[in-house]
Structures are given as structure tokens and as C-alpha cells.
User: Fold these one by one.
Assistant:
Number 1:
Amino acid sequence: MLLPLSWLREFVPFAGTAEELADRLTMLGLEVEEVRDPFAHLAPVVTGRVVECRPHPGADHLFLCRVDVGGPEVLPIVCGAPNVAAGQVVPVAPVGTTLPGGLTIQKAKIRGEVSLGMICSERELGLGEAHGGILVLDAGLAPGLSLPHALGLEREVLDVSITPNRADCLSILGLARETAAAFGLPLQLPTVLVEEAGAPWSLAVTVEAEVCPLYQARLIRGLRPVPSPPWMRYRLMACGMRPHNAVVDVTNYVLLETGQPLHAFDAHRLRGEVIRAARTQQAMDFVTLDGQTRRLLPGDILIWDGEGPVAVAGVMGGQNAEVSEATTTVLLESAVFAPLVVRQTARRLGIASEAAYRFERGVDPVGNSWAMNRAAALLAELAGGTIAPGVAKAEPRPYTERTVRFRPARVAEVLGVDPGETFARTTLVALGCAVRQEAEDWAVTLPSWRLDLEREIDLVEEVARFFGMDRLPAILPLVPRSLEDLAQADTSFAETSAVKAWGRSVGLLEAVNYSFVSAADMARCGLPLEGAVRVANPLSEDMEVLRTDLVPGMLRALRTSIAGGTTRVRLFEISRVFSRDATSETGVAEALRLGILLHGARFPERAPYPRGEAGFADIKGLVEHLFQHLGLGGCRWRAQSVRPYLAQQAEVILDGGCAGAVGCIRPELADAYEARGPVWYADIDLETVLRLARQTRRQFVPLPRFPVVRRDVTLRLGWETSVDALLDTIAAMDESLVDEYFVLDVYEPGEGMVRHVTLRVVYRHPERTLKDKEVDKVHGRIVAHLLRQLPVQVV
Amino acid sequence: MKRELVAQLERLVPRFDEMLAQAAAPEELEAARVAFLGRKGELAALMARMGELAVDDRPEVGRVANAVKAKLTELWQQAQQRMLPRPEGAYFDAGEPGWVPDVGALHPTTLIQQEICAVLQRLGFETVSGPEVETDFHNFEALNLPPGHPARDMQDTLYITERILLRTHTSPMQVRTMLARRPPLAIIAPGKVYRRDSDLTHTPMFHQIEGLLVDRHVTMAQLRGVLTALVQAIFGPSTRVRFRPSFFPFTEPSAEVDMSCVLCTGRGVLESGELCRVCKGTGWVEILGCGMVDPAVFAQVGIDAAVWSGFAFGLGVERIAMLKYGIGDLRLFFENDTRFVRQFA
């Protein structure tokens, strides 16, 4: 809401500065975004007196003027306007001025004559449509005055951000009420004199009570097709509205002033002496006054004359009864429409009109009459109209006063500080409430314009607003805790944080990608759309599906990082993925996933690190590190194709179930994201992992007292046999003296050649020191078993 | 013959020692080495005479020659060390790069969420979570935002179906907690939220943290206490907090909270005299919305507003991160350029 300070001052004698007002309103919850000067661009334009004006010797329609602009020198200006004459006071744009149309005035020579400025028309100044000649100002104005000052234009306009509950403040009047209450000033309404005259008229008004509790209208005859006066036009412009003609401007002016939207129909274009406000029963096309054909649906409220619709109620009038240059008689409508229906219709039609904006937030049902009369009086005054006697009216649901019980002690209970009963009473009265003592409590009658006030707590807020919420002390509460709270504790944030801390500790960078992806991203990764959740109204195609896997986002992050010049990328993300699930309350299942992506060198490419690319061992190792970090027992790996976007992949099994997959992003997919070499990726089902981690109990085992004996064996192992098979075979033997065993070394003489795998078996007896002979016996048994069970040879 | 040769060999040791002792420069040391240990030096010359000995005598003299050679070599090495005294731990350069394990980093939104949750947990609040895909009831209706309420315009919503949506704020977690448990309650709920909005200052996904306290006799002054503690814990004890009335359908009274600007420390102008771009010269930046739980919300979740009262607040994580770390561009948060995230190690 734009609030010109001078307009406000017509309603309340506020003598302070715009900044003082802005600060106070902001601290009342009416946040002032800025104080602006809507005509700042006209400040360089000055008043000038034409001291001499003679025809240009070299051109028929040009004049040579000498203009006194208050400076030491009289400016020579060539002017082409037919109405320029000596003695006039005119607006002069000196050299260097940029006019609203974008034209910058320069020193010029026009047909051989020097011109140092431009005498402007109304249109050139952006102040109106007139361009038949220059704007001639009041001859009494001194030369050299800045034009906004000379014309009395609004210089200080507050841009006030109005929260959706404060429909009353979508008007000068509403903001004046707040100002008056805040500064203890009286509210002064302009006098409205409705002088009715002329022949009686009649109009039968019928309304549907549910959607139109009040409809009234006045008839104004004998209007002249005149523009509204400059002061009104300038005010409308200062409020961001474009002036049209007196009739339209007056309705807009009163809308801004009172917050009551008004509509003027050309009365001669209305058919039959009836007006009806009712919902349409059937869909139809209707041309609104902006010339657009609108599809109306059953339920939309329309204003009907004797033959058909003439307006979309509260949203926009129809072209068929629009006022024009030819209009002499208008029917001035002032009504109250159901907020919800107006909102639905306006949204569906995509019309964000000032009227709809106010109706959908609620208008003052009592102030309605004042607004209508104010507009009628202005039409009579400014456009020569005559107000016909009487008002056509239907009010099936007259406004009844609302009274709320108020316990003054509630204020201190809610706020934690007591502004005092006197303060509370003064504030409520200043806001237009009537306060009546009833035993301990107050009966507070609410003002008709404050439809947002309904309950005691709303009044507490009013007292708090005027007391100043910034005056509340800061007190720490004693937060209650119960054993139940601790037992029910939601651990997901702590658990996720712990895994994130792990990621950080192993040198990964955390990514946070959007939860939505494009269908194309999904397809590129081979992820099925079936079972995925679609956004019904996505912002763009890029964001139409809720991700079922973290990989598309991680690949995007990879591409961004590579584009940023990073060659070594190590990322992780912990986020939810989504899938359709009919059993869920929302129809959507959400599951926590961990994605890890490695690309480029294993170590930073500098001293003292060895060279080499990250490989399967790196990504697999990170996953095993995580599991060990979480206290989970051994995981198993199974080479299996489980993710469509991975090649060379393996599934990781924890506690007998799949806990994720690890592998290399398919090369053509990696290429699509501009990777330069293999991209290693792990997709971990964090729900499962965390569930298992929660079940893990750490258990102490007494430290062994006797020394170990180590034996190594090196075996030739083809690619058809997994190293895992060696370990599994030893495990299956369940030899009691075996303490642990692991792969000591893998030697690959050349790409694809048979590997030499050295196993180390560590032996220990819990109760005595082992003899070499016993160890040799067991070790020999193990090696023999390996040779028998697997296609391996001792090197 | 044998005895003479042995004696000559053994005399080499004191003579060499003396010569080394007199050497004052590395060149002189080297000259001594050449004279005794060189190919044409004295030791070599004596050893050449071994052939003149009887075959039986040769092993004994050979052993002596070897011992002498070892002794001479040792003396020379000692002399060399004396000549070039080295500190303990020679061949050491602390300037060579160390083996630094990769330094990981958490996303700034995670850092801020963890920091805020840690502060509030210390004050007794418990962290809870909830679904990101929500019902209209939990996200709007239970929060006093019935269908068609103009305040729904404040949050442009991404829908899955007519009644299922991506949560537009973390407030539905309030509703879920109040439905599931009985007061007193003290919770915080961090998480992702979604709006149908994308421009320089809005991303369709961002993070919020919701706080809720429900107890007997909760006051707005306590709300101010908790938020002051929170803001000062994050931005420093000299940060000032301002409460300004505002409107949210689910709180009444409602307030917007500003804090003194981090860049200009609330003065509105910078040292250079320029208008502060962070607070646009006002000295204050808006950081969160809050208020006392609206009785209508209590009614929706079956809590008796005559007995219980409460406060709630919600803050935008990215906004706090931008102010705290001086990040100027919101879009950087979700591009995940390695160079961005790395800065938060």
C-alpha cells in the first residue's frame, strides 16, 4: 500500500516527518519498506517564464523563445508547440534532464538556432495524456522552482507492507486510524455533502445473501466527459495508478482512500431497472472491460442486469456496461462480496485487481455507505454530476455489532509484562472499540472495519502492538522435561549428524541438492519413472519429479565442480528419496539415503602423495569405514547389477539384507556430465544402516594374554575366483586356533594376468603359547583345503 | 719383514690421526684421505708389499691391514663430522609438505542447523523430524490456514495432489508433535521446506528450523528470552534483537524478529561512509518470525488453551548462513561447487 504523506494529513493532523511515521508504523506491524519520491525524476524540471516568443526565421511551425528560469541567464529555447506564448509560466527541462520517456535533453542547434532546453507537454513529463501543446502553469508561479514543488506533487510516499489480516489498512483511512491512535491525534474525515436532486429513479436490487450480504448503489446523472483535476490525477499516479477520466478516477480515488472498491456502470447501457448479485449456474464466456473474453464457471458471483451479466462481482466490470466518453449517467455500486468466492474467481481468471485484493480480505460493511457517498459527492463536484435521490439497496445480512469478553489481566499473562489496565483501555478505545466494564471483565465492542478482531487474544495483540513488542523483557523459561520425553526421543537428527560428521572426517565435502529432478535426468540415469512422485505444478521441467535416487543431483554437482576447475571431487549427500506408497498417510514413502561420489586422483596431486586415480577400492573402503565407524559387523559384497547407472558394481549386504550398491558410473553417463575419467559412486540405504547401528551393542572382550604366530601363504588366483572366496573358505573351516586372517598383498604382474595373493593367517591359543609344530599342522591343513576347494596354486 | 710391515701399518693410525687433527679445512681433510687411503696412498703402498711375504704370514698381516683400514676410515669420518658439525636430526627439512589427510566439510546449512539445534538443546528443547511431503491438514488447516485463506498467498505451494503437498514450512512438525504427545512440550524441528518460487533471493527448496514450547504460563517475554539467547549464541553477545509486530495465522500475537546488522553492527553505514548493503541502511536485518501459539491451533490439535499456552518460532537457515558467513548469493547453496563447500571445512 502506497501512502502519500499529504493525503494522510488530510485525515490526521500528523506534524512529524515521514521517517518518524515510517518508524512508528513499522513498529506497529505495518512495515514501511521505504519512503519514496514518486516524482523524483521531475525534480530537475523547473518553472520558466517565457519572456519572449517569436517565429523561427527558418521554420514555419517553430518558435524562438527566451525563457527566464530564475538563473542569471535567460535561456534560448526552440519550441514547436502551437500554444506557446510570451508571458506564460511553463515547465522547462534544462540541458541534461532525462524525461520519463527516456529522452535526455541536449544542447542543440535547430535550423541554425541554439536551443538550451525543452518546454514540455504533460505527456512528455509523464503527468498526463495531453500532448497537443505545452503544459501551461499558473502564471503566478515564480521562475526557477522545481516542478514537483511548483505543482504540489506528492514528494513523500510510504510503501507500507500490509499483512493479510489487515484489510482495513489497505486504505489511507485505515492507516490514518493507526496513525491517530499511535500519536494520540484526532481522526478527521472529510465532510461529505450529498445533495440529491432530479427525478426519482428506481432499481430493484436482489442479492444472494451468502455471497453478497450488502449491495447498494446511487445514480449520478448529467456527468461531463472531463478528466479529473490535476491534484487527483497526481495522487493516483503517486499511488501507482494510471488516471483515466473523472468517473473512473473518482472510484479509484475513493477505493484508495477508504479501501471500499466501487464500480461505476454506464447506466444507459444497463438493461431493465433491475440489478442482481448472484452466482452463475452455468459456465459462460464474458468480456471484461479490459477486452478479454473470460470463461466463467458455476459458482462465480456475477452482477446481472435485466438481460445478463454486466460484471464479475468484486473482480472486474464487463465491457458491455463500461463507462466511456459518452457516459452521462452512472450507476455507482458499493457492495460487500464473499471473500472466498471473489478470491477463487480472481485467482482462476488471473486477475489481480485492486478491488478483488480488498474484497478477498474483507471490506468494512458499515464504512461502505460513507465510501459510496464520498464518491457520489466527488462526481458531483468534479464532473458536474447530479446525485439522483435515494439509494437502491439490498442488505439481507445487516452488520451486527460484535462484542468480545476481555480479561485485562490476560495481557500480562500472555506478554510477561503488564502495560496496565489504563493503557489497555486507552489503546482499545483509540482503535475504535467501545469498552464496558462487566464485573471483573470488559465487554469490548469491536469496530466494523476490524474484521480481523474476533477474540480476546486478538485484543491482547492490539494492546501489545501499541505498548511495543520491543519493550518485552527477555526471560529464559525453565523448559520442562519428562522421562517420557527422553524415552520417546526422536534420534534422527542426531544420527544423521553423526553420519555427516563421519563424512567430514574422511575428507568428503557435503552436497545438498534439490529434492526434485527432471524426467530427463531420471531417464539418463536409467531410473524408472514408474513409482516416482510427480509434482503437480512444478516450477519448470527441471523440477517435475521427486528424486528416487540421489545420483542425478550428485552428477550435477560433479559437473558444476568440474566446470569450476576442480579435478578431484569427493562428495557426499544425505537426503531423502521419495516413492509412491499407498500405505503412507501422504501416499509417499520417504527414505534416507547416503550418496558418495569420488572422481579424479586418489590423493591430492602434489607432494608428498603418490600418484594414481581413485578406484573401486577407495569407494568400497569408504563404505566399510562407515560401517565400522557405526559399530556394524562385517558386510559382504556381491558382484551384481543392482543400479542401472552403475557398471562394475557390487551390492553390499549387511545382516543378510541389501544395504546399498557401489560401483563405477556408466562411462556414457559420466561423459554426459563431463567427467574426465571414472566416477565412483556409492548409494547407501541409510535407513537400514542406521536401524542396524541402533541395534548394535558394543561388548568388551578380555584382552588375549598369549602371543600370536603368523603364517603367510601366496596363491595364484585367476579372475574367475574372488579373493572373498579364499577368505570364506578359511572361515568355513572354523579352525579354533585361527585368530584372524586377511589379505596381506595382491600382486598383479600385468593387466588381466593371474594374481599372486598373499594371505596371512594369525594363530593364537587363549591359554598357552603355541608351538611352531602345532601351527605348522593347522596352517598346512588350511593351505591344503584351499588348494582342494578352489582353482588356486601355491606360488 | 712381517713384523716390520705390521708395525708400519699400525703406525699409520696415529700419524693419520695427527694429520687429521691439524687439518683446518675440508680440502686438507681430503688431502689427508688421499695420502693415506687413496689408491696411491700409504695404506695401498703397504698392502702392495704383501706379495713379498711368506704365504703363511699373509693372512695375519691381511687382518691387520683390514683393521687399520677400518680404523683409518672411521677416523676420517669422525674428522669429517667434526669439520661439518650437524644438528641432531640431520637431513631434516620441516618445510617439506606434510601428508595431510583430506579435510572434509559440511554444507553451511548443516553447520547452521547443527549450531542452532545445539544451542536450543542446551536450553532443553528436543529435536524432532517429520515428512517433507505433507497433507494439507498438517501444513495449512491445522495451522489456522483453511482453504481459501489469503495468508496462503504468503507461501506459494508445490502440490503433489490437491490435498498432498511439499511442506512449505517446518510448522507441520509442530502439529504432528502436538497431536502425538501431551504437553508440556519443547521441540525444535529442522528440515527442508519447499516453495514455488525461484529468483535471486528465493530457491524452490531451502531449510527452516521450527521451535515450539507448550507449557503452563508461557509468555512472550520468554519467547524473547529464548530467541535472544539463540541469536547471541550464533552472532555474538553484543548482537541486539528487536521484536516487531507481524502476522502469522498460527500465532497471536505474532512478531517479526530483527537483529542488529552483522556488517555495519547496527549503524546502517559502513566505515567507508557507504550505506550498508546488508541492512539497506536501517541497521536491522529480519531473521525470523514468531509468536504465541494461536488458540485456534490448540483447538485443532486438542490442547486446552485455557490450561496451556505456548510460543513458536521459525527461522530460515540459509538466511542465517548468509549473514553469518557473508554469502551474497543464495543460489550457491544448491549448486554444490566443490570450491563453495570446501570453505566451510
Number 2:
Amino acid sequence: MLATLIIVFREIIEAGLVVGIVMAATRGVAKRGWCISLGVLGGVIGACLVAAFASSIANMMQGSGQEIFNASIMGVAVLMLAWHNIWMAREGRHIALEMKSLGEDVTKGRRSLMAMAIVVGVAVLREGSEIVLFLYGIMLSGGNSILSMITGGIIGLALGAFVSAAMYLGLLRIPTRHLFAVTSVLIILLASGMASQCVVFLQQAGIVTLFPHIIWDTSTILSNDSILGKALHALIGYSDRPTGMQMIVYFLTLATISALSKLFGTHKAAPLVKAHS
Amino acid sequence: MKYLLLTTAFILSIMAVAHADDYVLTLKDHQFSPKELTIPANEKIKITVKNLDSTAAEFESSDLNREKVVAANGEITVFIGPVDAGTYGYFDDFHRSTTTGTIIAK
């Protein structure tokens, strides 16, 4: 039971923190609850499919199918996060809050919501497929009783959801006028972390071979394996032993999204903010 | 078309030969063998993990920052390194306390 609890908890936290940030970032956008639920549901269904076809996915592309699949879906998530952030910078944070009253912007808001739903879906799919495979394995081996597996799973799920909800509620305590500044930074870090994770997959597949050396080793201070390490990994892409290429891609993503958000943000947002103050 | 297939088969067989001396880890009854795998340091190497069990496993190494699902009765390949000389732990993430091993880079 404990093994199930721990594995479910760890995976739920990783996906849950992403969902929490997305929830906070889309605060005030009409129908975001539906869209994000749809993302979670899609992710769960996707996770079951990925688990069911794990073997065939792994065998694609000369045995690197799993990495290419993971790197692709995370690449999509990075693009969606980047696009959302730039869009938010351009339209101004208050527009999102007043979305309901702005006819034309509802469609725009929805488009950004769909992007965020995809991000949520990808996060749930990635972590969920591991849970499905693990639980299925336990069921097959039959050593553990189904009941204790379900108990462990539910407690793990509840704990993971609790931590994620706590972070979300913590974010909501930030005054609205600062909230989007904070979530936009969080989203940039989230995207950079995912981009660096893409690099790991491609290195593991032997596709990316440049700068493979490890830059630092902080595994004795904060291990990737610890719960805090896992949480920071999901939030800001923490790695206790990053390679040179990971670092390059991380900071390149960070710089690109920041620069584009700033570039698009200064045009329209400035006069709008003025008009409201 | 036929020639294309033959050529492809030929190239694939050459690649298979070229990788013949790569490293293999076998998973059976939730135990890795060899438990200690020696690899050369400062070289990029390829490890094949064969899962002979009827349940899925996840080959994972926090030390090497690698994780990959191995389907039941499936096999996967993972590239690692170049790494410094040293000892690196690995485990099956689905049985992480009982199914472990070490990779020694010399």
C-alpha cells in the first residue's frame, strides 16, 4: 500500500503543480474550469492509451519512440505556455479579468484557454501513464490485495491534490494586480524546465549529443529524488545534475519567452493600464 | 521498392552488428542482472534493458538522470554518458526498494 501511495503521490504532485499554476494564470477567464477539466480528462485518457501501447511506442523510431514521443508532447506544452504568456502580455492582465464583458475577446480568451488545457493534458498524460503502468503491474502480480492498492492510490491522490491545491490557494492570496505578473514568471520557468526536460529525453535517445557533460552536482544538498526536488523539478525544472545542453536550452527558452512577452507587452498594455488607473 | 527494402534491411543489419557489443541488463523476477554493470568512463554508451517479466518496469537512475518505461516482455535502449568514473545507482521505479543495481564507470 505504501509503495502505491508514494508513487501516486509523487506523480500527482508533478502534474498537480502544473495544473495549479495554469489555474492561477487563467483566473477570471470565462469557462476556464471546463477547459481545464477537459485537459485533465484528456490527459487521463491519453495516459491509459500510452500505457496500453507502451511497448509499441517504445519500439518506434529504432527504439527511441518513447523519448521522441515525450519530447514532442513536452515541446508542444512549451510552445503553448510561451504563446499564452505572450498573449497575456499583449492583451493586458485586466482584460482576462473582464473577459465576460468583452465579446470579441471571449474567443481570444478561449484560444488561450485551449492552449492551457493542452498544457494540463500533457502534464497529466506524462505522469499519469506511469501511474497506470505501475498499478496495472501490481494488479497482475497479485501480491498486493486490490483493496490495499486502491487505498494507497486514493491516499496518494488526495495528498498530491492537497499539496497542489495549497499552492493554488497560496497563489490566489496574491493581490489580483500582482497575480498575473507572478504567474507569468511561473509560466516562463515552467516552460524553461519542460524545454530542458525535452533535452534529457533527446540525450537519452542518443539524438542530442552536444554538451553532454554535467555542469554541477547538488544531489547531496537537494536530490532529484526527494519530494522537494520533484516539486522544484516540476515547477522550475530543477535538476541536481544538469548537462551543459540542458542549461543552454533552459536559459534560451527563458530569455526568448521573456523577450517576446516584453516586446509584445509594451505596445498595447501601457496605454490600457494608464486608462484604468 | 524491393531493392529499397533490401537496402534498408542491409543497413539495419549492419547497425545491429555495430551495436552488438553494447551493454545489456536483463530484468527477471524483478531482479536486474548483472547487478553490477561495468562501463567505460568518459564515453557515450548504449544500454539495452530486457524485461522478461510479465509486468511493466521503469528503468530509472537518479544518478544518471535517466528514466524509461520497459513494457512487460519488452526491451528498450538508453544512451548514457559520457560520465566521470564512479558508481551510479539504478532501479526499477515501480519496485524501487527491491529492484536495484549499480553501474560502475571505470
Number 3:
Amino acid sequence: MYLKKVIPITFSALLFLGSISSVNATDECFEGLSRSVFKFNMAFDDVILEPIAKGYNKLPNPIKNGTSNFTSNISTLLSIPNNLLQGNFKELGNSFGSFAINSTVGIFGFLNPAEKLGLKPLKEDVGQTLGSYGIGQGCYYVLPILGPTTIRDSIGIIADTFVDPFAHVTIREKELLSISGNNIDYYSLKGTAAVDFRSDNLTNFESLEKNSIDLYSSMKSVYLQSRENKVGNSDGDQEDWDLDK
Amino acid sequence: MKRISTFIILILVIFNGAAFSYSSDPKEFVLELVNDAINKLSDKSITNEEKSRYVEEIAKENVDINALGLYTLGELRKSSNKEDINKYQKTFEKYFLKSLTSRLTDYSYSKFEVTMSEQKSSNYTIVNSKIKPEDGNPEIKIDWRIYTKNPDKPLIRDLIVEGLSLARTQKEEFASILSSNNNDINSLISKLEEFLNN
């Protein structure tokens, strides 16, 4: 019964993803609407996220680092199945090793002894896995609260909740190794991770905002470059400029 | 004679200082330039105006602003007329210097380290570096795209901060402005002027 539902959904998703591969990521799905949502997100950031991030930044460093380590350790769980799906066994070992060490020796992930042992796993999600299969990003748009995305990454966000063991024990309330949770656990962790990320980038956001002529386009470029790098596990664009071409 | 030679040495020293001559080796060039900038920008005895002037001077001397301007213009650089390109280049230089000064003075760094460099071609070397912010935030990885067509005078063409190319971000920002204004270079120039007047 379960397979009867999953196979058509997977088949339709693959057909759809195949068709979006030809769409350039710089293409907009619906720019006017995305710009309005972007304005809303900026207002949300001004009123809610930024003040919380500023407050969070005032916490003592051990608390901040512990929170950051904890959210990062849980997010490693999503990397494990994705490394497997990508056939990247070296990274799979890194993710698994890092999670196991930090969850035990690192006291439930509040400390990061794995990094000191040289285990610094790359974060992987379903969007990246689809990218590694050669599926293009599809057009670009902005989601309320969640921010910039593409068609491929949006499908990835939904699929993440099916492959992420943490989502299984929280959103789907399934028991795994006698551990279970609920929706609140899942969204609290995601919210905390967002605050942690925002607090690390207070100056970067402020500087980008102050120095952009079109902030929407700058954010779009930053997002697309970042996703390209993550899919390719690369350090960024190092193309040669030939201004005579 | 002694006075003349002292005078010549003094002129040379002053000229060298003013021209911000750094090493021609890309790795040393980045290290010397950034350390010099960190010292200057963290010097509390220097006014903000002097700091801004200093940033402008080192940028004019060591960044390939002309090439950066053409790159960020994208395909339009081939179809625009010379007069428009010249006007754009002049405005772009002012815009670039203002935004660079603002970006650099937004941050305060304590430690800079060049980790390695790789020659990509006879024209390019990528220098990898790490910088530690003073506010205790995680260190930032910065790659420098150094143009070495003239091996005696390396020039910075791009900074890739944590994998994000500043030149590419700028180019895509300009492309968006141009596409919503029928690819009119003068609309872009107006936007840059607006930024300068704010």
C-alpha cells in the first residue's frame, strides 16, 4: 500500500525535476511576487530575527558555542543518508563519526571533540543530492520566512523531512532507538539554528544591506553561489576572466 | 652633494610610501597589503576620513578597478559605445571606492594569515587566506584572485569570501538592474550615482 503511493509520487517528482533541469537558476519563477515576499522577510528580520540574534550574541561564549554545536550536531543526521545517496562514503564516515563522537564524548553534542580529531563533515541535504545527480536548480523564488530557494531546493526541503532521522522522531513522531519527540522539538531546533546563523552574520548582513544597490539581487546571487558550492563541495568560483572574449 | 642625496632618498621614501609598493610575489603581496591595512584601520590615532583616504589610495594602486568595472557590466561592455563605457567606468570607480571603504570600516580584524597560493595560469594566481574577526566570530576564509599579467605589478581582481565571489555578486546585481531597465547602461549609471549621493 505504502509503495503504491510512493512509486507514483517519486516517478512524477523525477519527471518534473528532469523538466526543470533546462531552466536556468538565474531565471525567476515570479519576480514581482518574490520581491514582495523578500520585503516581508526583511521586515520580519528587522522586527523579530535580528533583535533575537543580537540578544543571543550577548550570551556568554560557552552557551553560544554549545548551542551552535548542538544544532550543528543534530543537522549532521541529515547529512548521513544524503552522503549515502550520493555514494560519498568518505563523507559518510566523517558525518557518522562526528555525530557518534559528539553525541557521546561531546555530551549530547554541546561540545565538538570530533573537530579536534579532524572530523569536520560537510553539510548535505536532498537539494544537494539532487544537484549531484545533475538535476538543475530550476527557477528562483523567495519563500516567506524560509527565504531564497529554487524549485529543486524546495522539493529538497520537503524530501529532507522524509530522509532526516531527526524529522522522523519529531515531525512524524516515530520512535528510533527508544528516542521520540514532537513537532515543537523539530521547529525549535530549526529556529535556534536560524538565530545562530543570523547572529554569526550580523555584520555581513548589515554590510551587504548598506552597500547594495539592489539587495534582492545581491541576496539571490549569494544564495545561488552558495548552493553551487555546496553541490560541488567546492570553495567557490575560480573561473578565469577573459575580458577579450 | 650630501644635501641633494638626502633629498633624493627622502623623495624616494615618500614616493614609495605614497605608491604603496608591495612585493611582486602574489602571496607576499596579499600578506603585506592586508597587514598594512589592518594596522592602519585599527590605528585609533587616525581619523575616519584619513582611513577612508588610505583605503581609496591602496585600492586605486592595487585593485584592477578598470577590469572589475568591465566584468561587472557583463555582455553590455561589447555592445555599448565608448562614450557610455567611459562614463560608466568613471562612476563605477567612485561607487567601488565608496562601497569598499564602507565594507572595510564595517569590520575589525585581529589576525590575518595567508595559507597557500596556486598559480592558475600565467595571468592568475589564487591566494588563500584566513582572517580572524575581533568580535570572536568564526574565522573567515578569503581567496584572492590576483591578476599577474604584469609579473612586476600584481593586481587584485576579486575576493572570494567563504566561497562567494564579490565580483560575481556585483555582476549579477548589475545584471538584474539592467534587465529591468531594457539593458540601458545609463539607468545603471543613474543607480550608481544615487548610491554615491546617499
